[in-house]
Amino acid sequence: MLRTLCSELPAATGEVVLEGWIHRRRRLAAVTFVVIRDRTGLAQVVATDPVVREQISQLPEESVVRVAGTATANAKAPGGVELTEPAIEPLGAPARQPPLELWRPAVGATLPTLLDHAALTWRHPARQAVWKIAAASLSGFRSHLDGAGFTEIATPKIVDRSTESGANVFPLNYFGATAYLAQSPQLYKQMLTGVFERVYEVGPVFRAEPHDTGRHLAQYTSLDAELGFIADHRDVLTVLRDTLAAMLETVRETTGAAVELLAATLPVVPDRIPIVHFRRALELVGASPEEPDLAPEHERALGHWAQQTFGSDFLAVEGYPAAKRPFYTHPQPDDPRWTNSFDLLFRGLELVTGGQRLHNHADYLTALITRGDDPAEYGPYLEAMAHGMPPHGGFAIGLERWVTRLLGSDNIRYAALFPRDAHRLQP
Amino acid sequence: MLRTLCSELPAATGEVVLEGWIHRRRRLAAVTFVVIRDRTGLAQVVATDPVVREQISQLPEESVVRVAGTATANAKAPGGVELTEPAIEPLGAPARQPPLELWRPAVGATLPTLLDHAALTWRHPARQAVWKIAAASLSGFRSHLDGAGFTEIATPKIVDRSTESGANVFPLNYFGATAYLAQSPQLYKQMLTGVFERVYEVGPVFRAEPHDTGRHLAQYTSLDAELGFIADHRDVLTVLRDTLAAMLETVRETTGAAVELLAATLPVVPDRIPIVHFRRALELVGASPEEPDLAPEHERALGHWAQQTFGSDFLAVEGYPAAKRPFYTHPQPDDPRWTNSFDLLFRGLELVTGGQRLHNHADYLTALITRGDDPAEYGPYLEAMAHGMPPHGGFAIGLERWVTRLLGSDNIRYAALFPRDAHRLQP
Question: B6-90 architecture in CATH?
């Protein structure tokens, strides 16, 4: 007999078969309630037969079962239909008692417990909801860019040097030589803009971040996009705006129940994200015009200002000083103290960095030599630049950071399935 | 003025602007032809003005330009329309002469040249076509599984031990400790089947394969799927069948021109892939019943047999001996010498491995101890198995292998954007 999913039970009639986990058992005087959990949600089973009730008492929560029974209307059941007269067939050995009670509405566990037992704690509906929002975000990112003429790419995660700087890389024994885990696909996505014009990659990036903060992971999922034939960084910002809107739309459409369960307030992305120049941003927050970067309290103040002034959860700050940006950053044409780069603030926190890159070989040589870098270290990358590259730029969104901020969470580890940090290599 | 893409030129009229690379120049006595290449294809530009012709002679192939002109019908032009009276604006410095002539129909370069200059050689339309087929395959894989109730996952690529064996792993300095690059997401996707029932991941996996063959890469893109609540491995094979059919359908629908350019013959996936038991397969190829595995010549013979007998490019061989399969492999219930696992042969070559896994904690303990492995090494994984796992199984498709075999190519390196092997860490 074909399986009925829990979400399909409210529309079912007659004999049905559910398969899933025993989410919760409640034994009353004359009846035992069992809540079954499958990938679509929960369903209620009611047993009155003493033999079946005894069988249930031998099947702890999280045991996996097949339940055949009758779909029966009951206004008090979730969805208005429950399964009665059940026959229960275990699909495996009875489950061991979980380290936390997954059936309780709130996840009653500290962060270390949550992470130590991630394979189990992700089963909690409120935890599943977090990842479902992450997965929907990935889907929205890709489908939007697919529709905008982008080509998906897959680039090396083992590289012969660090992408942007020598710091925070993981060294690797590569057939006896030393290699490194890629900190980003930056140089590869730029080279491939010379091939496909518009490219994106969703993949792991690695940062040997020694500090134990709520904002950093040693591995995270980077949503990278890069596009050619732009006028400047504002074209990149437009694509970023549309991409974020599509991600939110997919979250809204496909994981509405998860958003509701987590009581998350999804932002509205304005048709045009307000833009303020870095120099003006410093003025607005009363910082010295010599400041090379925005401090967290500056970002918070700017987020407040954008909300007050434009009613926007998003604010783009453009024109960051060249000294604080990587060598490939394109200068602001009318004043090279500034750059054609931006940070996108979301509710007063930096969410995305992006900008226009250099595209002429000679400009790269100058930029690298000025910084004291050896152009010979960037051979294949500079070769691409010498052979005709369009004006181009791009951005990178950290998936876990995105989800964390969307949910107003205070630790990025909640948004990674099996997070990695300086103290955690397990599970 | 809004840019017209090369593919849009045949439908264009009046003044248009193209942007792209100078793919080819041909200077005749009174006219210069320029072929412009962008992400959508090629377009012809015809210059007669001596000043413009002189300008073009200063812009080597691969220079990036904006060309404004008049869309003019010409039956001899590609698509029936060419650009006349062009005004050309370089969008960067003139390009350096490429290491191979990208405008020639055939890629005239040896494999090392192709790989050494990958950022340039991928610009060749025949090379782009290979990757477009890869990207379409990824898209088809995901969209099919999204529609079948699967959840996308992202798992750690840095692990504290090898996934399946101690061989061929890359050791890593992880904050002073030794860690390894993940050879597959196997254990993680199984654990997450306990959460989401049906999961998939597209991501890099790493094998420190020391042998320099045409079949191995040190990093490749693995298309992993795993699903719960199966009866046995044949349910997995059904999902695999439908997934491959969807991948091929997406390739056909979205990259028809690439398939045609490469003169690839896409297979038809039969509604039911023929299945033969390993024991019977040995008989069919006249091998000893004691053979523990199929040799390449056996696979070729079986491919031929499947073609002759069923008219099928695909053949599933099920029941591989337990000794040749990983510890998590589910035995064949009626005869534990064999397993509920399969290899899928495509045109006589192994393409995919899959099967049913163990799902009871006690069976894992037995399997590990029998093999002399220490269960304590698999702590979090075994914990998941102790807390209620559904009968489950899955498969993994290597993207580069898939593309290589689809195109009848002899070296997997042609199908990776920037391949990694024992001798190659660049570009």
Answer: Beta Barrel (2.40)
